[in-house]
Structure prediction request, 226 residues.
Amino acid sequence: DTEVTQTPKHLVMGMTNKKSLKCEQHMGHRAMYWYKQKAKKPPELMFVYSYEKLSINESVPSRFSPECPNSSLLNLHLHALQPEDSALYLCASSLRPSFEDTQYFGPGTRLTVL
Amino acid sequence: GESVGLHLPTLSVQEGDNSIINCAYSNSASDYFIWYKQESGKGPQFIIDIRSNMDKRQGQRVTVLLNKTVKHLSLQIAATQPGDSAVYFCAENKSNDYKLSFGAGTTVTVRA
Prediction:
């Protein structure tokens, strides 16, 4: 089983709202990732969690706040977003934070900021 | 910035023909290369990978070729089917880094 699940599938929010995206995997993976993907573009890395600790933040604005409550869950808290933040947000996981370990992606959350 | 790119943004293939999707990379230190398939409305799906110490690797109906001399990666799909219609991304990383760097993507359309 190589399944990464994400909820919700779609989210529409206003610029003053607070919302959260959720990602879950039960493969025993210890590295989890958040990517942002704009239409017709490749995924762009946002954050990496390694053994439940934030190891990489790709200079993401503070209105995006990641959280890893345990080894199976990854959240992305959203606050005061801008319309240009509208995108597909992808979660991925790999067995370890290693170049040799394949990253498996979830289906994504389609976010629209009004 | 991206160190991986694709030669063509789109590819139209007749059903049953073989497809070849190309990717050029600029980082000679890259150690690991992956092909992902992304269907409309879905996340990227792992297809096949190859280490830098290999030239060729085969999967089910897919073959990845790596030419380190010219820094070129290709994905061959045999007997292309309508379900192969998707965007294909190559990605790479280095042994001291687990950050994937994606190419721009090639949209493959299969004609019936």
Observations:
- The mean pLDDT of chain A is 94.
- Chain A touches chain B through 26 residues (CB under 8 Å).
- Chain A has no helices and eleven strands.
- The first strand of chain A starts at residue 4 and ends at 7.
